[in-house]
Amino acid sequence: MVEDKILVWKFNRGSKDALRRIYEKYKDDLLGLAITLLRDRSVAEDIVHDVFVSFAQTTGTYHLSGTLKGYLSTCVANRARDRNRLRSGQDAGLDVVEVVGSNSDGPMEHAIGSEESGRLKDLLDRLPYEQREVIVLHLHHGIRFREIAGALGISINTVQSRYRYGLDKLRSILNSVVTK
Amino acid sequence: MRPKENIEKFVRVGKPRVTTSRQMDKRTLDDSFEAMEQTIRTKSADHKPSVPRIIFQSRMIKLTATAAVIIVAIGLISLFVHQGPDEQIGYDQSPTKMMSAISLTMAYRRGGIDTLDEQCEKAIRMLGPRPLHLTLGQLLSENNG
Question: Is B41 on the interface with A (CB under 8 A)?
Answer without folding.
Answer: no
